[in-house]
Amino acid sequence: MSEKIKVAIIGPGNIGTDLMYKIKRSKNMELAYMIGIYESEGIARAKAEGINTTTKGLEDVIDIDDIKIFFDCTGAKGHLHHAPLLKEKGKIAIDLTPAAVGPYVVPAVNMDDDMLKQVNVNMVTCAGQATIPVVAAINEVADVEYVEIVSSVSSKSAGPGTRQNIDEFTVTSKTALEQVAGADKAKVIIVLNPAEPPINMRNTIYTIVKNPDFPKIKEAVENMVEKIKVYVPGYSILLGPIIDGNKVTTMIEVEGLGDFLPVYAGNLDIINCAAVQVGEAYAAKLLEVK
Fold first, then answer.
1. Predicted confidence band at 1 (pLDDT cuts at 50, 70, 90)?
2. Which of 115, 126, 149, 271 is catalytic?
3. Homologous superfamily of 5-124+270-289 in CATH?
4. Which of the residues 18, 26, 86, 215 could staple to 260 if both were Cys, CB 3.0 to 4.6 A apart?
5. Could you tell me if 212 and 248 are in contact, meaning their C-beta atoms sit under 8 angstroms apart?
6. CA–CA separation, 39 vs 36, rounded Å?
7. What is the CA radius of gyration of the chain?
8. Comparing 5-124+270-289 with 126-263, is the CATH topology the same?
9. pLDDT tens for residues 13-48?
């Protein structure tokens, strides 16, 4: 087997467990540890997969030299504690929480050599990963003055972590739409939909643009969707883009891979797929250095 970079997951909840299965398929990464703070279902699943585990927290693993990359799947408060510890030890942190210690990274938009020089990067939010690429594509050809996102996810796919961090998710998504996608002003609305059977993640993107050139906008959005599908196969355009004057409306749907989470939990799946894509890039760089 070709050489791989060893990585660890902090937080064996739903996102961490799903990420475990995705990393097991990785080209450049080997999952060396699942890190928790108590015996949980996620820890048990990791053990069953032959992964090393600890219930003593990050401090129990951080000094293992071979582990170069840590995926933090805890919460905003958890990562604020973990980030300085990882930085001090020279580890790379891929942050899936809304803590936003490091710069926002969206693989289809700003994953470049400069980003790979960062020791801590933030995966924005589920809504951010789903909508920022489309807004960035529209902004590049039409100059987005204002964007409003309505991200609707199944209530069943929103666990305690999501619910406890809902304000942080909203603010982080808004900020990243402005800083990464380039919108002059953004607004984000998140809807937890209790429908049965559960719905797939859907994101309605309303933009007001300065240059409403429909052919250019349509081509830019379609090209961006193809870039995203490379690492999020269940990503698709549900509607549009539709242009009415200077208003552009696009609806995106995200269906999950079903590795651990249900396929309707595309909101959780997309941030994991994006995180793996970022991890692959870091690992590839580390392997080239070797």
1. very low
2. 126
3. NAD(P)-binding Rossmann-like Domain (3.40.50.720)
4. 18
5. yes
6. 7
7. 19
8. no
9. 889 999 999 999 999 999 999 999 988 988 999 999
